[in-house]
Amino acid sequence: MTAAPTSLETDLMAMKEAARSAIAAAATLDELEQLRIGYLGKKGQLSKVLGGMGKLSAEERPRIGALANEVKELIQTQLDQGKSALETARIKAQLATETLDVTMPGIFQPQGRIHPINSIIDRIVDIFVGLGYTVADGPEIETDYYNFEALNFLPDHPARDMQDTLYLPNGHLMRTHTSNTQIRYMQANEPPLRAVAIGRCYRRDTVDATHAAVFHQIEFFAVDTDITFTDLRGTIKVFLEALYGEIPVRFRPSFFPFTEPSAEVDVEWQGKWLEVLGCGMIDPNVLKSVGYDPEIYSGFAAGLGVERLAMVQHQIDDIRRLYTSDLRFLRQF
Ligand code: DAH
Prior knowledge:
Number of helices: 11
Keywords: Aminoacyl-tRNA synthetase, ATP-binding, Cytoplasm, Ligase, Magnesium, Metal-binding, Nucleotide-binding, Protein biosynthesis
CATH class of the largest domain: Alpha Beta
Strand content: 15-25%
Distance between the termini: 93 Å
Organism: Phormidium tenue NIES-30
Subunit structure: Tetramer of two alpha and two beta subunits.
Pfam family, one: Phe_tRNA-synt_N
Bound molecules: 3,4-dihydroxyphenylalanine
CATH superfamily of the largest domain: Bira Bifunctional Protein, Domain 2
GO biological process, one term: phenylalanyl-tRNA aminoacylation
């Protein structure tokens, strides 16, 4: 209130100088903000000076007003410059401490692969599902009834010896084939039916290049009112072509207690024939054992050796390679 008109001008000039050095000395964005409030804020120094303008004479007012504006803009410009200088310095400092080398090699993440046994199982199941088959499931620990008796193996029949079975102390056994699932599925369902069963099988076999004590089979079977051997042959042909394309295939007459007639199918492997599946027309005694009338229904069945099909597909020379977990071998698939 007491300030004389000339003293306003002096105040503005002094403020300009003080602001310049204070802004130049500010080391943080926070300090700059405090300076802005102190000089240009609503209750800041500039508005205090302008508060005294009312006392000025009519000729002095525009001149001091213009000077006040000039000082205000100058301070604002210096604040902006100080702010961008501090921001640049902050980014530079951050870049200097947080070095990120984008050319550095990444951290190696080993990729898993599908085991050749599982991948061929997936392909085979896809083929049968495409032909309208349902996936059926059966237990690995089985009773003599489902593994043998219902499949028409008589108690002392030599066909049992061919499967050199592993028995459990309670009289149950490790299933020797997936044919147990035929019986279980047919008991639970009425014809017409088409099903495929996949799983592990166990035999007290001597292990060699083409035999393992634990191996996988896929069983497929169909029952309807007029199924013939031609349907079986056609299905096997379509299946093997879907899996391998054109490949030499041989049907051989054979014997299984649960099929009549029976056949074995060989495909070419390492310049020789390798048996990959057994098949036949379901024996009337088996149909009777699940309560189907063999005068009305007929059916076919087949059991495939999964390891052997994989050996043919990938030209693997020894079944044991599939189980030794040798990464050099497994990485090829
Ligand atoms: N269960 C037979 C075996 O493991 C394979 C087999 C043969 C299955 C003929 C069948 C079949 O369904 O009809 O040696």
